[in-house]
Amino acid sequence: MTYCVGLCLKDGLVFLSDTRTNAGVDQIGTFRKMTLFQEKDRFFTLMSAGNLAITQAVKEILLQGQLLNGKNLWTAENTHDAAVVIGDAIKQVYERDHRALEKAGIDFNCNLIFGGQVKGERPRLFNIYSAGNFIEATPETCYFQIGESKYGKPILDRVLNFNTSLNLATKCALISMDSTLNSNISVGLPLDLLVYEKNSLKANKLVTMDESNPYFQMIHQLWGEKLRAAFNSISEPSWSGANKSSAISAPAKKMGAVPINRQPAKSKIKVAPPIAKKPVKKTSAKVKAK
Length: 290
Prior knowledge:
The chain is α+β, with helices and mostly antiparallel strands. The protein has a single domain, classed as Glutamine Phosphoribosylpyrophosphate, subunit 1, domain 1, CATH 3.60.20.10. The chain contains five helices and twelve strands. It has helices at 52-64, 79-103, 153-159, 166-183, 214-233, and strands spanning 3-9, 12-18, 20-22, 28-30, 34-39, 42-50, 110-118, 124-128, 134-136, 143-147, 191-197, 205-209. The strands form three sheets. It has a five-stranded antiparallel beta sheet, with helices on one face. A hairpin with a 5-residue loop joins strand 3 and strand 4. The protein is extended. It starts with a strand and ends in a 57-residue tail after the last helix. 32% of the residues are buried.
């Protein structure tokens, strides 16, 4: 398993990925999930989750610059066309490998986050699926997650929006990752972090973070402390109703109380006793001697 998150904001893009892969608790490896593609007029970032052999095959096709329907990442006119190229690369790997995978009982599992900018357009972000189709981030839905996403989602939903600054978004993404690391052993350090500033077409803010990174150490320590402090600052429920602001037994407006099914009363109908059977008399037959 893995966890990757990509953010598309008014000032640029944020990408964050872990590096752990595992095929069981005793088969854990470290592989980069983030790949960068840079030219004078374009800058792209790709993050991957799913079957490692499949995602590596897709990345190799892209790195080699194979033409897919006449295009590759270096000749695509815009970021949307570049996402189409990646989808075509996934389809090519599927056509080559899916029969062998089916025979082995293995699903074709490949999820990608792809984003960047071609000179003259705005930064864009895409979530590309195993079928090669994709969706694009919007100001209303400005982030994508792949891999083990559920633990890191709450902080993104509560804090993030399209107008969030890149620094604040970076902090939010790292807290999202720390929450995931704390709850799932299949996600692990080191982390690859890229903060892409709009129109730069360069990786000016790119870092690999491990447990010795001072900022991530601070995030890990303070986030836990602040969560506990916030939890302790919330009033406990008041069952007596003495404290109206924390009264928990107030009646619901749309539904009444939960009914309690009591034991039914004993029936007063008298049941007649069973009729006694008359004993059967035994008769002995006389046997005549011959």
